[in-house]
Amino acid sequence: MSSRKFLALFLLCALLPLAAAWLALTQGWFAGHASNRGQWLDHEVQVLPVSAGGDAHWRLAYVQPSDCDAACEAAVEAALHILQQLHAGLGRKQEQVRPVVVAAASPAVLERFPSVRWEAAALADAALMRHIVIVNRAGLALLRYAVDGDPAHAVQVAADIRSDLLRLLNYDRSGV
């Protein structure tokens, strides 16, 4: 084989996969499959202060609006129940996750949920109101899950959060 034929064959073998990849991406043939069930935030939102060194790596936070009506109270109770059950179901991984409610004032029903803590804060980001948010050690919100007072929806939300949270805990190497 001559050197020209070899060079042409080599370039064809090297450039053909690149051209195919470029074509697939520009034409939309490759639709990436996201395995998360929550909604990723498209901008950084500081929900909580930076976590101390010995504190939990991850926080599950329910963001309560400042003006809460009867429907909101039902959603708060459902969210606190979800947080309590998720924390209890984590088993030995409980120490890596801290459930909190972020509100200007402590919710009245908080005393019925002993593992959930109250963090005094008022967020201006309306996209997080009435949502459970997975918050990292730096206090930034990563994923959000809408919560309403419907018990059937609460079961699905809890399963979605658990799936995503366990995946984050399994891949977290910050404590190693």
Protein described:
α2 (70-89) links the parallel β2 and β3. Helix content is 38%, strand content 17%. The protein has helices at residues 3-27, 70-89, 151-171, and strands at 39-40, 58-63, 97-103, 117-120, 131-135, 141-146. It is elongated and about 85 Å long.
Summarize this structure briefly.
By secondary structure, the chain is of the alpha/beta class.
Global geometry? elongated
Strand content: 15-25%
Beta strand count: 6
Instruction: List the quaternary state of the chains.
Output: single chain
The total count of helices amounts to 3
The strand order across the widest sheet is: 1-6-5-2-3-4
Radius of gyration: 23 Å
Q: Please mark out the parts with pLDDT under 50 across 5 or more consecutive residues, or reply none.
A: none
Q: Which percent range fits the helix content?
A: 25-40%
Average per-residue pLDDT, rounded, comes to 86
Structural class: alpha/beta
Outline the biggest β-sheet. Answer: 6 strands, mixed
Distance between the termini: 55 Å
Could you state the order of secondary-structure elements as H and E? Answer: HEEHEEEEH
Overview features:
38% helix; alpha/beta; 3 helices; 176 residues; 6 strands; single chain; six-stranded mixed sheet
